[in-house]
Design brief:
It is a single chain. With about 475 residues, the chain is of the alpha/beta class. It folds into two domains: about 5-225, P-loop containing nucleotide triphosphate hydrolases (Rossmann fold), CATH 3.40.50; about 230-425, Rossmann fold. It is built from 20 helices and 14 strands. The chain has helices at about 5-10, 15-20, 30-40, 55-70, 85-100, 115-125, 135-140, 145-150, 160-165, 170-180, 200-210, 225-230, 245-255, 270-275, 285-300, 310-325, 355-365, 390-400, 405-410, 410-450, and strands at about 45-50, 80, 105-110, 130, 155-160, 190-195, 215-220, 235-240, 280, 305, 330, 345-350, 375-385, 405. A seven-stranded parallel β-sheet has the order 3-4-2-5-6-1-7. A seven-stranded parallel β-sheet has the order 10-11-9-12-13-8-14, sandwiched between helices. Helix 3 (about 30-40) packs parallel to helix 4 and helix 15 packs across helix 20 (about 410-450). The longest helix is centred in the last third of the chain and has 38 residues, at about 410-450. Mean pLDDT is about 80; it is low at about 260-270, about 270-275 and about 450-469. InterPro entries: DEAD/DEAH_box_helicase_dom, DEAD_box_RNA_helicase, Helicase_ATP-bd, Helicase_C-like, P-loop_NTPase, RNA-helicase_DEAD-box_CS, RNA_helicase_DEAD_Q_motif. Pfam families: DEAD (PF00270), Helicase_C (PF00271). Keywords: ATP-binding, Helicase, Hydrolase, Nucleotide-binding. Belongs to the DEAD box helicase family. This is ATP-dependent RNA helicase.
Length: about 475
């Protein structure tokens, strides 16, 4: 049976099946097979869907939403909420790809974007609103009389990465948005709430137990440890190194990739790293991201950086450069750990070990995208003495041992030869960051004195082309 027939069996129209063929979607994934007909049948007001990262969850709700939009082309058809700006932009890109044959109007309402332009997009009665809760909540407070009636017309409300959106960080904004959407004085039709996530968090389970979601349809494909199994084929290793020399080992791994002198009978880890296409280095804080990226830049590695304190235009440009393979090294906080679809990542390095075992899975899962749900990849965790308990907790969570990386550990003498240069580069990096922060502060002060504001990237989403506040 061909892809067109399989997608057709789910209730998708011929034009959308043709789009799937054009996007090389050969057959629906398991979450798409389960979720698409359930959404289209509209028997349930709330649908909870959990499936592993990279399993096609965006298409699982985008395709039925576009199906009903084509048959009933109303304005304010759906709102899709995302916990991060980058994921919101990615969702908009997916909708534009799927909705290319129709005149799709999208309002991208995210922090860091031009507020006036986003107000104008909403005034043009878009079919879809793709938003972060912070910015949409702010617009709702500013334009309550105009925006509330529009939100009360929505047919679909989607919470992408629902486990993140249902945390206290988004409680106020999400509450205001849902109150406007469900306003009984304005709403004349029913709407569906679609919650999508990699796993059902404790918060979602609590809502189920409390009866708030008792009539919801539940599609849970995260059972049987699928979340952990998704990374089961990734080669996971650790290096036990003192905290003070972590940077030297990181530089050694990234700059050498490493020795290409693997033995003829099978590749060593050093040789296989030489085949890596792109690498993500995860750190725990924005300041660490800046310091490590600047240090490596001084050492001539030219990495990209990604964290929440960057301007939105810089964040989007970084993601685009990394996706295109222009610069193959990305230093990032956990902003890049969830949701973002970045293909061709074959190595993840945990410079800092996350406190959450689930975050570890999300991080190394960046290497398992684009080739299949159990794609191969490599991860290396730089473990200091203070990280040992966290690593043990992660191993217990996965029911799997993370193996030591002996062929790099045995090169300690080579790493130490670079230690002086790395420490010197790090000291220079600290000075550069202080200078940059002082300059940025002076520029911001000058803009305020002139009555201006910081420039932000403008987001224009036309009908022909498809970030928290």
């Amino acid at each position: 049976m061909g892809a067109a027939d399989e997608f057709g069996d789910l209730g998708l129209p011929s034009w959308l099946r043709a789009v799937c063929r054009g996007l090389n979607m050969r057959q629906p994934t398991r979450i798409q097979k389960e979720a698409i007909p359930t959404i289209l049948q509209a028997r349930h007001k709330t649908i909870l869907c959990a499936a592993a990262t990279g399993s096609g969850k965006t298409a699982a709700y985008a395709l039925p939403i576009l199906t009903t939009l084509r048959s009933d082309p109303r304005a304010f058809h759906a709102v899709i909420l995302s916990p991060t700006r980058e994921l919101a932009v990615q969702i908009a890109e997916h909708f534009q790809a799927f909705g290319a044959p129709i005149s799709l109007r999208i309002a991208l309402v995210i922090g860091g974007g031009d507020l006036v332009e986003q107000q104008q997009q909403l005034a043009k009665a878009p079919h879809l609103i793709i938003a972060t809760p912070g910015r949409l909540g702010a617009l709702l407070r500013a334009e309550n009389e105009e925006l509330c009636p529009s939100l009360s017309r929505l047919r679909y409300v989607v919470l992408d990465e629902a486990d993140e959106l249902l945390t206290k960080a988004f409680e106020t904004e999400l509450g205001d948005i849902m109150k406007a959407i469900s306003n009984p004085e304005m709403r004349t039709t029913e709407y569906q709430t679609l919650l999508f996530s990699a796993t059902f968090s404790d918060q979602i389970k609590l809502l189920q137990q409390s009866g708030f979601l008792k009539n919801a349809a539940v599609i849970d494909l995260s059972d049987e440890n699928a979340f952990v199994q998704n990374v089961s084929t990734i080669q996971q290793n650790y290096l036990l190194v003192p905290q003070r020399v972590k940077d030297a080992y990181l530089f050694f791994i990234l700059s050498r990739h490493l020795d290409s002198e693997g033995k003829s009978s099978g590749k060593s880890m050093s040789r296989s790293l030489a085949d890596s296409k792109s690498t993500i280095v995860f750190v725990s804080t924005c300041s660490a991201c800046e310091l490590i990226a600047t240090t490596l830049q001084i050492l001539q590695l030219s990495p990209l950086r990604l964290h929440s304190q960057m301007r939105q235009s810089e964040r989007l440009r970084t993601i685009q450069l990394f996706r295109n393979g222009n610069q193959p090294i990305l230093i990032a906080t956990d902003l890049a750990a969830r949701g973002l679809d970045v293909p061709r990542v074959s190595l993840v390095i945990n410079y800092d070990i996350p406190s959450s075992s689930a975050t570890y899975i999300h991080r190394i899962g960046r290497t398992a995208r684009g080739v299949g749900l159990q794609a191969t990849g490599k991860s290396i965790s730089l473990v200091s003495e203070r990280d040992i308990d966290r690593v043990k907790a992660i191993e217990n969570y996965m029911n799997r041992e993370i193996l030591p990386l002996d062929d790099i550990a045995n090169k300690e003498h080579v790493v130490m030869e670079e230690l002086g240069a790395v420490l010197k580069a790090k000291a220079i990096a600290r000075l550069k960051i202080i200078e940059r922060q002082s300059k940025d502060g002076a520029n911001e002060g000058l803009k305020r004195r002139k009555g201006g504001v910081s420039s932000a990237s403008r987001f224009t989403v036309s009908s022909k082309r498809a970030s928290p506040e």
